[in-house]
Amino acid sequence: MIGLSENMFNGYTKYFGMLELPAVALVRELAGQLREQGANVVILLSHMGLKNDRELASELQGVVPLIIGAHTHDLLPEGERVGEVLIAQAGCYAQHLGYLDLLWDGERLSVERVRVEPVSEEIPPAPEIVAEVRRIEEDITHVFSEVIGELMEPLDFSEERECSTVNLMADMLRERMGAEVALITSGASFIEALPSGPLTRGKLWEACPSPGNPGVVDMTGTQLPAVIQRGLDPEMVARRPRPLRGHAQGLLHLSGASMRAGQLYVGDEPVDQERIYRVAGSDWELDSYGGYTNPEWELKPTYDMPIILPEALEAYITQQKRISLPVMGRLG
């Protein structure tokens, strides 16, 4: 098998210095190497998306018989054939199981049948997987039961209004990244509230499972209000993009800035269109794929790789020890 991934908005090159090679030539080369090592069949596991998979399939006739795809989360109940290559995808959110019946006749692999089934209560969990999950959870119970701090008051969560959990995340980002302003949307940070009292690592990570990375970027005094205006737009707030796994994008929350009678203030001063501001957020807000910034701005955010938001927030809470209710009313 060969695994192939899309460059994710050029992110692997931009942030990790990885070189993107021509996909078709690369698969041909690797498939040849695998056959020299004794492989009879080569299957491509693709995170390139359906459009790219179709192009790959047309160029890889006789090289791979099957592309098991992902990234665009298309549901292909019977697969899709491009010449002799079959492309399979099973949708999104683990709502379907995909099945492939393969036949090897001693010389050639053929796909005899493709089907998908909705995941339902009638489908029993695989006992081997259940046992492995239980073993892993037992091994890490002590890690997730550790108390990392104390919440003096409960912190609420909402996708539709300003809430204290996401304000806490914004405050953390501004301090961690040394920024004047921080902005973070609820859907890219939290999925539930936090109760008052001792806070365990496990409870924090249940409420904040985000894989986003803390980042910082320079924005002009015209770009910053434009980002915030988009973050407060009702249509933007209600979006449920696939990367957020079914959750609404939610309101953009602020730290170091506030909305007052429709005017953006940074600290106690109205935003200055002639100034450059240091702005913290996650990759969802700072990179263009979240829909807040324009690619034409050519912003150059830097990220605190490989730290993710729950790790950064845990460090902040551990340092503070006791967390009081964050200042509210930042959105006017």
UniProtKB/TrEMBL annotation:
Keywords: Hydrolase, Nucleotide-binding. It comes from the Bacteria. The keyword Phosphoprotein does not apply. One of its GO terms (biological process) is nucleotide catabolic process. Pfam families: 5_nucleotid_C. Residues 148-292 form the 5'-Nucleotidase C-terminal domain. Gene3D superfamilies: 3.60.21.10, 5'-Nucleotidase, C-terminal domain (3.90.780.10). InterPro entries: 5'-Nucleotdase_C, 5'-Nucleotdase_C_sf, 5_nucleotidase/apyrase, Metallo-depent_PP-like. One of its GO terms (molecular function) is hydrolase activity. Belongs to the 5'-nucleotidase family. PANTHER family: 5'-NUCLEOTIDASE, 5'-NUCLEOTIDASE-RELATED. This is Putative nucleotidase.
